[in-house]
Amino acid sequence: MILILEADLAEQSPVFQQLLTRLKALPDIQFRIHQEQGAEQLLSEIYLIGHTKQLRVEDMEALPGVKQAIRVSREYRMLGRHSGDQRAQGFDYNGVHFGQDNLNVFAGLCAVDTREHVEQMMKALQDNGQVCTRMGAYKPRTSPYAFQGHGKACLPYVFELAGKYGIRVIAMEILHESHMDEIREALEKTGHPTGVMLQIGTRNTQNFELLKAVGRQTEFPVLLKRGFGITLEESLNAAEYLASEGNTKVVFGLRGMKSNLGDPHRNFVDFAQVPTVKRLTRMPVCIDPSHSVGSRDAGPDGIPEVFQVTAEGVVAGANMILVDFHPDPATALVDGPQALLLKELPWFLEDVRLARETYEERVLLAAAQGVGE
Ligand code: PEP
Ligand code: MN
């Protein structure tokens, strides 16, 4: 059961303390406090764990400081959507809103290779009104002999250039908790010119100790990719690990499933589950068309397949797009064949705008039918 408390209730306040005394007296119930300082209010939630069936919602709502009690109706206690659940969804980070009702594009380099390429990429983003990007510094590679990313060595110039070109959020995969410290240190040294969304890749979706470590910090939001060979439920539970440790600023990423049934795509595109994740949880949903399709191939109509699957995801309500671009894909050290060209960026963004407009019209059409009333 989740108790939503009145806004701006400090833990030291007498009301909060009275509530804790009452909760401690409940038999077979443990609890965990979660507080979030929003732009205007301090929001507090208390998660009750254990023999909660014995508790009555009305009794819990009569406790001091409690605004609403929600019986958890399914899994994913913290990130899930429960009946009667009116908690706000989404979060703000470094001036960018992430929610189930909007869309952010993260176009950028799969892997940072040279400073020049980073600068060309960021300049193109600024020229096209973009404030988010992807930049891989730590790369999980199939072969131990393949380029592993420049790691912490590239962070200072990546962050400085981001500041120069007005980039507010960089999605960056980490493979180990020490990478968080390296990122924090580089941001500190460069004077925090940008923000970072920590990405947990598909190979680490069920690396529970990494999830716990990333969940224990709340400075950086997290993009958790779906595991390539596990069920959706297993991946959503992985996201819940982050939240259960304290970090609820989580975006869930679909990136295709490893299956030869999807050939010749790199992965079998799973963007049909965008609305499913939005129905089961309150997380914004990201799609990664580049790692799904894996090539720059275009259909006979001239539309690249990366554009096509992006449109599929956006028309279904996706909230974030993680997409590979490169100023010179032939020299890219990682995933060159799937990177779109910088000159294609305005085209891509316009294509996305059309798909988003269609989604918004579809929402209005559904509302006109009385759906959801
Ligand atoms: C990536 O985004 O660079 C990446 C490696 O993705 P995934 O974890 O989905 O393979
Ligand atoms: Mn890649």
Automatic annotation (TrEMBL):
Going by the entry's taxonomy, the superkingdom of the source organism is recorded as Bacteria
Q: What is this protein called?
A: 3-deoxy-7-phosphoheptulonate synthase
What is the scientific name of the source organism? Acidithiobacillus montserratensis
